[in-house]
Inverse folding.
């Protein structure tokens, strides 16, 4: 079982968390003026990189708060976790 560090509760088992998709996506500023194609792009198309990727996670069985994490999509290793609203941390090269 992998341990994930919640920025509010500390390290907990992976089963306590729920994946929430790509982090740092902005909601359309004028939703009533957004075309169907733009909505489709916003709702269904996400980056899928190989390597470090910023994601949203929810600690569903703990504090129930959302947070961001940078996870390596190849190794599944969590490289950093940070609260919503905090800037994305720089990772060492």
């Amino acid at each position: 079982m992998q341990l994930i560090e919640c920025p509010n509760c500390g390290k907990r088992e992976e089963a306590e968390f729920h994946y929430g998709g790509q982090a740092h996506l902005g909601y359309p500023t004028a939703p009533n003026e957004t075309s169907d194609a733009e909505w489709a792009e916003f709702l269904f198309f996400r980056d899928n990189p190989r390597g470090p990727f910023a994601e949203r996670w929810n600690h569903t069985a703990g504090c129930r708060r959302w947070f961001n994490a940078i996870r390596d999509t190849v190794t599944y290793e969590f490289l950093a976790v940070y609260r919503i609203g905090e800037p994305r941390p720089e990772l060492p090269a």
In short: The mean pLDDT is 95. The first strand starts at residue 3 and ends at 6.
